[in-house]
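Hey, I'm writing a tutorial for new members on how sequence and structure tokens pair up, and I'd like a real worked example in the thread rather than a made-up one. If someone can provide the structure for the chain below, I'll link this post from the tutorial.
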Amino acid sequence: MRIAAVLAVATAYSVLVNALVQGDHPMLRELGENKSQLESAMMFMANTITNNVCWANSDSRACDVNTELGNCNLPIPAPSDNYVDDGRVNKYDQTLASSDAKAFITIAATNSLQQQIGSTKASWISYAAAPKTTQNTIKFTAPGLYDVSITASDYNADTHCTGCVAVLDTVRPAFGSCPIYSGTPTLSTLGSLETYENDYDSAVTQSVAGGWSGTDCSVQTYTVKDLGVAQPTSGTGTTPSKCFGAAAQDRNIGSLKTSLFPANLQSASPDVTTKYWECIKTKVLKENVDEFDCNAATTTSCHGDATCDLDVTITPTPPEIIGSIDHQIPQTVQDASKRVTDDLDNPQNAVFDHANHIYRSVPCASFDGSDTCTFKSTLSGLIAVDPHFATGFPTTTSTGETRDAKDFVFYRYNIGGGTWNEWIPGDSALDGPISFPPSAIATETYEGTIYVQAWTAVGLVQQFHYDITVYHHNELKCGGFGNLFAAVNPRVVGGAHCAIPKTDFAVFHLKYQVGDIMPLKQTSKVTGTFTEMKCQIAAKEESDPVKPDTTPAELFSRSAGADLTIDEDFAVQLVHNPNTAQKTTFTVTCTVKRDLNSNIMLANTDPDEVSLSLTQATCAHSFTVTDCDPPLLDETPDAVSTGACTAPGLNELCKGPLVSSTAATTSLTQYTAGTCCNNYDHTISCNPVGTSATSTVSLCEAVPNPLIMTELAAAEQAIFSNETLTALLGATTMVAVVALVVVKRRADAAARAHECEDAYYPLLE
């Protein structure tokens, strides 16, 4: 503490008056005779004490309040006397303490309570030699107003001079220490910031002041702002709560779970300038100081300027919250993409990047804009995201609960740079569905890009994108289905195919290859997976269209995994049960089924909404068969049965499928034995119809006698080589020749029948 002493005396006039009034003994002489006495009565003061003793030790800051009057540079009146002065030794110099002592100098001081704080006597000679020694015996131990008097006495008179000393406290309170935070405030340093704040709050309560400090009038202010509020709050005194305590940390970090969306959903750069955490504390130490003044009433005012500040602002950045976000197309989604690309023709062996590109298909043959023909999915159904906290981010609450990084990331997405949409993975309302394409388009494929941005409450942390391609299916087609059938007998009469000569059935060939109905793979459309093919056939009397169709029989079938081609013959028998008819109409109906590309399961498509025309095609073709052989009047049949037989007879089918019918039902009988009845007068054999190596239909035919056929041929050649002989034979042996010619014609007819069957003939409508 610095002490200033001010000694003031009133004007000479007032002092003299006070002396005259208060004096109780006569003056020895007039004042005018002692010029020094008059001069010393003038006002005097000293502003400072030059010999104060202040120091600091390890315990506290202290100051010795022990002001000695003699150390003040005060114009204390200098006593003089014409007799006892002048360096003379006076009678009572050695016995000044005696009540009878005369001729000495007295200095005394009293406080504002009229309590004497000190009084000392000195001989004239000692005072003249060392006045400060005497003055120093008067000690002021506290600030205040003091009356100080000096009395000069000789043997017969006393002269008084009374003055005022004001001792002032000029040492203001100070902080013993004020902590300083040397680091950079971040969310990862909240622990040290909490310690720093605690140290600060403790330090500002431990101010050091002088022993005579007045009452405290310190000024304490604060400005605080949480991350979750827009404007700071200011006030006086201490903060309502700790800025960086456990509750404040939970509150501020919890506010980072508040999304910038949807309020700023369409903003390119949402405003995050208010996202800071601020704590400013200031304390200025002050005390109420009594302004002692000998010439005026004492006033009290607040003084002090020792300041201790805490000024911390945390402005979090996105990387301080979220260190990284793993994003990927899940394996299940990649697998579905692969099923799509595997269903495409890839002549160039292009490599599809399923890890970064999504491929999908729709159960339609075009993008018509309908729900069924639009691929729909949640964004979570296509993309997986997994955020991770930044290193140092407080991952647990004050109560030990683990924080989840997912709560601190907020997503928005758009398709192809369009309008932003909020995305909350797994949320029923904000996770889609997304539509691809968003509207009807005429192209064979849809190409789009999904742009995703990941934001924290304080800004953008990451962005990425994925491409998506959507295909529609190709169409099943029946065009040209009739061209898949061919008749073995090329003859057509009256728009109807002729039956095999001498038989009541016709033979047809069906040649089906993959791609005839279900298209082959294409580069820009998906095909799906073949599941089955079934062909049925129904026979009906053509002349009676009002009759209902008969129940069909299964002609051919193929299933997934089998050889899908059909290259087979089948025979169709003219109606004869319950009656024969001029013509018989056969209708072949083939149904091809497929499963659509399997990713449609992800499109939330109701299978009932998928058109049957997309998953199956039913193709039909009708043809008519008639008997084109005229009746014969033969003396000798080709072959005559000699008894009952269960095997196929002459001119009957002996191997292959035979379609026959009743009035209500069409049936198919498969002949596999390949044998014929042997109860004939001629040999009967089971021979293929036609000469194709793949022929699967055979019929029983009579085998001509080789010896007889050779003789007939030689005779015929001899006869017709001589015209005269020919005429003669014609005139004399007519009956025999006729018989021979009949036999020859039958042999030729059999040969011609085989010639006709050497190739298949297109089936004409």
